[in-house]
Please model this.
Amino acid sequence: MEVRAFVFKRLVLLFPILFGLLLLVFVISRVVPADPAALLAGPMAGREQVESLRHQLGLDRPLYAQFLSYLVQLGKGDLGSSLYSNRPVVEDLIARFPATMELTLVAMTLAVGLGIPLGTIAALRRNSMIDKGLAIFSVCGLSIASFWLGLMCQLLFGMYLNLLPIGGRITGAPPITVTGFYLADSLITGDLGALWSSVVHLLLPGLTLSMPAIATIMRFTRSGVLDSLQRDYVLYERAMGLPERVVVVKYVLRNALNATIAQVGLIFGALLAGTVAIETVFDWPGLGLYAVSSILLFDYKAILGVTLVSGITYVVVNLAVDIILVLIDPRDIRRQEA
Amino acid sequence: MNGPVAAPQDLAGVGPAKKLLNRRMQRLFFRDKLTGLGTVLVLVTFLSAVAAPALSPFPEDAYENVRVTERLQGPGAKHWFGTDRMGRDIFSRILYGGRVTLFIALAVTLLSIAIGVPLGLVAGYYSGTIREVIMRVADIFLAIPRIILALSLAAALGPNVPNVIVALSVSFWPRFARIVEAETQSLRHELYVEASESLGVSPLSILFRHIFVHTLPTIIVRGTLGIGFTILLAATLGFIGVGVSPPTPEWGLMIAESREYLPGTWWYALFPGLAIFLTVMGYTLLGDSLRDAMDPKLRGIEG
Model:
C-alpha cells in the first residue's frame, strides 16, 4: 500500500515539473532574446519586415497570452514549423528521436556492462596494480572531452587505419522501419547485413559517449562492493566455507549494486546530453545533430523542440528508474523521501 | 554584542575540528601521488594562463592575425604545436585559450555558488512554502540535462563570453542549492544550532556562522569538480558553435575549426584537446582528493 501511494505521489508530482519545464522553455524562447522577431528576420531585414513578422508571430501580444497560445499549440502536438525547411518540428523530432535513443541505450548498455565488472574487480583487488590502473582510467574517462576523444578515434580508426566507418548510422539501405532503432529493425526483419553495418557504425560513437558513464559506474560499484565486503554476512558466509565466487556474485553484488542502480537515471541524462557533441562528430542523424544544425541556421523553434523533448525524456526516465527501484526494494522509499 | 553571542561559537567546535581536518588533509595530500599530480596540473595550467603573454612565442597570434605562407604547418622548431588555417601559432593560442577557458569556468562556478548557496541555506533553514518554492524551481532547472539547457540559452543569447557564463551558470546553481539545502536540513537540528537559537542568536548569524561554515567542505569539493566539468561544457559549447565566437582563442572552437582539414592536420585537433584533458584532469584529481580528505566515511572504506 505504501508502494502504491508512493508511485501515485510521484506521478502527481510529474505535472508541476512538466509545467515548469514548458514555462522555462517558453521563457528562453520569448524573453531571453532581446527581440526574437529581429533575430528571426535576420540582419538584412528592414524595420517594416521585422514589424510585420512580429505581428504575424503574435509577438506583439502580452506574454501571458503568448504563453497560453503556446500551451494550446503544444496540446495539439504542434511545436511550430522549422523556419528553415518549413517542415513541422514535431515530424523532424519524431524522425530523429530513435537514432538518439538507440545511441544512448547502446552507450548505457556499454557503461553498465563494462562499469560493473571493472568496478567489482577494482574492489576485490583493492590497492593492487589493477585497482590503481582502473582508478587512473576512471579519472581519464571523467576528464576527457568526449567530442575530442570521438574525433581522435575517428582519425585513428576511421581515417588512418581504415578499420571503422567515420560517421552515419549505416552503409547502404537502412532496414525496413518498424521501431526506427536500426539494431532492432534489422533483427526483426532478419537483415543480417544491415545488423552488422549498424553495429560497426555504433561502435565508436557508443564507446566514446559511454566513457564518462563507464568511469562513474565503476566508481559507484567499487565503493559499493568495498562497503558490502565489510558486512557481517560476508564474514559469516566465508566462515561457512562458501566459495568466494558465490559470496561475491550472489551476496555482495546484490547488495552493492543499489547505489549503482540509483545512479542510472542521472547517467541516462548525462548520456542523452552527451549525444549532442557525439552526434556532431559522427554525423549521427539524431536530435543532437538536429539541434546543432538548427543553431547554425538560427532556427530557434527546432532548438526549443529538442530542449523540450530531452527534458521530458529525462524526467520520465528518472521517474521510471525511481519507481522501479521502489518496486524492487520498497525500503528505497525512505531513501528517496530523504 | 558579546558574551551570549560569543559562546555558541565554541559550542560549534570550529577550532579543534579545523585543526584535525588540517592534519588529516596534510597527511593525505603528501601521501597521495595523484593528489600531487592534480595540484601540479592545476597550478601549471593556471600559471601558464596568467603568464600567457610572457610565455607565448607569438602573442600577436592569439586573436586575429594571418600568416599566409605558414598555414597548416606541422609541429617543428618554430611552431612547437604547428600552425592553424590562418598560419597562427597553435601553442600560443592554446596558452591564451587557457585564459578564456579558466576565466569562464571560475566565473561560472563562483556565480553558481553565489546564487545556489544562499538559496540552499534559506530553503534548508526555513522549511515550508519558501523551501518548496526554491527547491521546485531548482528541480525544473535540473530537469533539463545541463549541456542542453546551456545550449538553448547560449543560442538564444548569442555567442560571447558573458553569455556563455550566464548559460552555464543558469544550469549549475541548482546543484549547489540542492546539496546545501540537504546539509542545512540535517545541521538545522544539531544541538549547537538549537542551543544558539534558544540563546536568541539571529537566524542570519546562525545561518552564516554555524551552518554555512559547516557546508564549506562540500561546497569546495563540488566547486573544484565543477570547475573541471564546466571547462568540458564550455569547450563543448565552443565546439558546437554556440560558445565564444572567432577569433577568440577557445579550445573547443579550435578543435571545431580543425575538422575540415582532417586527416591531414592531426596537430590542429590533437593539442587543444590535450590542453582540455590535462586541465580538467587537474581539477578532477584535486576534487577527488579533497573529497576523500573531507569525508571520513569514504576514508574508512578506502582504508
Summary: Chain A touches chain B through 53 residues (CB under 8 Å). The first helix of chain A runs from residue 2 to 30. Residues 217 and 263 of chain A are 8 Å apart (CA to CA). The mean pLDDT of chain A is 85.
